[in-house]
Structure to design on (346 residues):
């Protein structure tokens, strides 16, 4: 089988990298295409994954509309040369479109219900759409579900082992309690009209948390002068080690909140965008606490954070919840491979 994997976001590198290795180990051919939106190329290079550069990432809604046709054309050119049996990506409009132009099949993975525009221009062209079981939409006869979350494709214990050396290189002691605070850029198409905690409330939060633990800040944009001393620089492929040793994660990004949860680090998710998998990780496992109101303040977060940092049995409860999560979910890398192989034979 020949599979073309199109990468459109840093998280997609993580999602597919174990499946790419598994497929190649089974004797299948895999070609990776990518655009350097954020740190995709750095991640692919870090994992030793060769890729075909599809050129410029187009910014803004207008730019993305213009760029869609250009990227479709570039991907179609590569696909005609490679002749894949199946194209795949996460919420990948281009793979779905090009599969129809090249007589290949397409498998689109997604866990994001609210990306309505992307759904509209992607799902009708996909041959199969695969989501977590907790996905809130019914996408019809092409829709398949699995027990788990995207982040389990690369963070199950069989796929990932936290390394304290990675943390020590940042100047953080993995044996001491610390909190990771993540601030995002709010630049994605589905983020339009939304804003996060803001610098003033972020600063109040960080200074209050410092009374109980060290606070390290990672951010997609330059931090303000007052937060600069808390910012740590860590290569993107090592971020999961930081999350695994943290006592608590607080952030505006859903992917990193879910990564923390499946690693057994409780997460406070500060974002008005409600997602099925975030709800399940909160309601079923108690590993995520969602703050969906736009007016969320530092005080709101502190009320939830302090018990997780100070109560004697908090770590024990979190560890038990993570074990139950692992027992009740599937090996998502195997899920990826099975759907690609099955769809290629359709």
């Amino acid at each position: 089988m020949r599979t073309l994997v199109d990468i459109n976001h840093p998280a997609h590198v993580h999602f597919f990298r174990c499946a790419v290795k598994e497929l190649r180990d089974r004797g299948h051919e895999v070609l990776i295409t990518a655009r350097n939106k954020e740190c995709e190329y750095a991640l692919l290079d870090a994992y030793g994954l060769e890729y075909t550069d599809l050129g410029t990432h187009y910014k803004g809604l207008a730019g993305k509309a213009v760029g869609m046709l250009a990227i479709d054309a570039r991907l179609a050119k590569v696909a005609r040369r490679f002749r894949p049996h199946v194209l795949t990506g996460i919420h990948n409009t281009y793979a779905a479109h090009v599969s129809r132009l090249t007589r290949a099949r397409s498998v689109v993975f997604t866990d994001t219900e609210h990306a309505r525009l992307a759904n509209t221009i992607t799902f009708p062209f996909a041959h199969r759409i695969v989501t977590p079981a907790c996905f809130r939409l019914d996408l019809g006869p092409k829709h398949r579900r699995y027990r788990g979350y995207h982040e389990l494709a690369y963070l199950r214990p069989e796929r990932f082992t936290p390394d304290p050396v990675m943390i020590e290189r940042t100047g953080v002691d993995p044996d001491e309690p610390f909190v990771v605070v993540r601030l995002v850029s709010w630049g994605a198409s589905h983020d339009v009209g939304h804003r996060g905690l803001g610098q003033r409330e972020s600063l109040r939060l960080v200074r209050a948390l410092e009374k109980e633990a060290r606070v390290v800040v990672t951010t997609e944009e330059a931090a303000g002068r007052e937060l600069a001393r808390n910012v740590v620089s860590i290569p993107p492929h090592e971020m999961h080690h930081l999350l695994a040793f943290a006592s608590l994660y607080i952030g505006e990004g859903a992917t990193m909140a879910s990564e923390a949860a499946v690693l057994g680090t409780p997460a406070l998710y500060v974002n008005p965008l409600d997602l099925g998998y975030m709800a399940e990780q909160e309601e079923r496992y108690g590993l995520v606490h969602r703050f969906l109101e736009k007016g969320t303040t530092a005080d709101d977060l502190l009320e939830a954070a302090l018990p997780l940092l100070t109560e004697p049995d908090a770590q024990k409860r979190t560890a038990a919840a993570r074990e139950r999560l692992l027992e009740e979910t599937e090996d998502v890398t195997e899920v990826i491979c099975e759907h690609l192989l099955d769809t290629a034979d359709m």
Summary: Confidence is low (pLDDT under 50) at residues 185-194.
